[in-house]
Amino acid sequence: MAAAAHVLVFPFPVQGHINCMLHFATALVGAGVHVTFLHTEHNLRRLGGRASASSPAGSPRLRFLSIPDGLPDDHRRSVADLLELYKSLAAEAMGPYRALLTPSPTTGSRAADVGVDPTGGFPPVTCLVADGLLPWAFHAAEELGVPAIAFRTASACSLLLFELGELPFPAGGDLDESVRGVPGMESLLRRRDLPSLCRRPNETDDVDPALRVLVKLSAHSGKARALILNTTASLEQSALAHIAPRMRDLFAVGPLHAMSPAASCSSLLREDDGCTAWLDCQADRSVVYASLGSLATISRDQFTELFSGLVAAGYPFLWVLRPDMVEASQDAALQEAARGAGGSKARIVAWAPQRDVLRHCAEGCFLTHAGWNSTLEAVVEGVPTVCWPFSADQQINSRFVGAVWRTGLDMKDVCNRAVVEKTVREAMESAEIRRSAQALAQQVRRDVAVGGSSATEFDRLVKFIKKLSTSSAVLGQ
């Protein structure tokens, strides 16, 4: 009898990475695979009972375990601290992580003493799918005889950029100069479409340490047994074609949130449960939804310009104002002031059920940071977007939205209330943008449906994992 496939899914412990890798995990469970989803202890405590609620109904094949990240519980774990989190996790989690993969002398299975039944009725771990930002996890797994697959949560075009782009570019250069060295994007990308950490403030500044890490990690992905990307050929065909020869195997299986057999509750922040009722009271396509994601921080001046532009545009709007989003502000006072300034047309919340908001008939456009999860969620629902990117792959994603797919407008490098007002109005009123958004949504939905490119690739991936699992079980005997 063939060994049961049991995949350990290990995301980098921030919201955006957890989201799409949990959708992937639940899709695997739907395909009959056992999955252990690995959180940090800090994040699993934040999720509480909501983590177990993520398991597809009636399935015992998904469980949640945790390892330490080495940081105190009151540490902010903000976007400015990601490099510290990266280093601390690698230093502190290795022992407990290896224990999850190591055969137990008493049970014969790979398990860890993590405060629960070490096996939980699960078969041994036979395959690792780890975030591409965790190369040490790949090395440890392969050393222990567990085949490892890389999962990159960003767009394919950003991965290709980090591998081949001229990074960083010189200080003082023209931001509209074309970027060379990225095949298929020679006439598309400008320097302003690269991640902000590629910009040197002056000639004497060294390369940003985070940029060094990202470039190194992008090159490392090719060493895994395969690379999984949360995308589809309809969105990024050229980038995928240029990435594939650099990998041992490549699977484009997205958008995963549209393929998951059950909605997954992965939010580290409490969602406001009154959003839907408020939207129900608004006219169709009348609401602007504004959210800058789970990590972005902005200045008080930037907040004022964005907020004032939304008010001036004149549409009802739902604004996600995280408690830690605006620098040097008193959270409660700022939220109260925003509610007053927005009047009856504004609803201000700390966090929203974004997928539910985007699919609501009242949703007219999405003012977004253009993170890949948010970009894909808007694409699937056919919602026009206004992009104000912040970091990582967001600059290049926003360029694709505005210049390639033409499903929205790219507002990068501008934070002016008059521009915000004008851009939001155009996104809400442009019939051309809405037609493009809806046409792309229809194509992507075909991709994830039975027989579509992503669905076919996912089936191939499940077979690949089961084959690796059989080999892993033989080696582990």
Quick overview of this protein structure:
This is Glycosyltransferase. The protein is α/β, with parallel strands linked by helices. It is 41% helix and 12% strand.
Could you explain the architecture of this structure?
- The protein is α/β, with parallel strands linked by helices and 477 residues long.
- Helix content is 41%, strand content 12%.
- It has 17 helices and 13 strands.
- The strands form 2 sheets. Strands 3-2-1-4-5-6-7 form a 7-stranded parallel sheet, sandwiched between helices. It has a 6-stranded parallel sheet with strand order 10-9-8-11-12-13, with helices on both faces.
- Helix 11 links the parallel strand 9 and strand 10 (346-349).
- Helix 4 (94-101) packs across helix 5 (135-143) and helix 10 (300-313) crosses helix 15.
- It starts with 5 loop residues before the first strand and ends with a helix.
